[in-house]
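Box 3.1 A note on notation
Throughout this textbook, protein chains are presented in two layers. The first layer is the amino acid sequence; the second is a token string describing backbone geometry. Keep the layers aligned when reading.
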Amino acid sequence: MDDPFLGEIRPFAFGFPPKGWASCDGQLLPIAQNTALFSLLGTMYGGDGRTTFALPDLRGRAGMHVNSAHTQGERGGQESVTLTTAQIPPHSHTANCSNVAGTQTSPAGKFWAQDSDGNVVFNNAGGATMAATAVGNVGGAPHPNMQPYLVVNYCIALQGIFPSRS
């Protein structure tokens, strides 16, 4: 393996940082023992800038190149999202109905029907809208918001060639 640039990040297929590397897990390092790396990273990823600085934290994160909308060191996104009613597009569901008197005590997996006293609980007109109270609310729980992934061990070089700007 060629000598890395100081501060270079590489993925490794094994679960530990090699000698001269550290996991990209946001750990704080002392500036006094890592002055060259601090001169490259500063407090972009955290630390107090007086005695400590932080390494990038890629746990649960995908890297993204700097652009006009996103600055280096910026964190964003969420691992899970709870949608609000306003974020769900209007939609409809068909309901199967029967005009035979209902006799089941549990509605699970059953048809809409007349109740056992003969009261009609459906509308004969096609395309009728159900009352808001006909079906209970669902949702409200977060769902995963992650692209397909493969976990590897991202590490940053603590030693190596100081990168030039040429």
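Residues 35-41 form the longest helix (7 residues). The chain has a mean pLDDT of 86.
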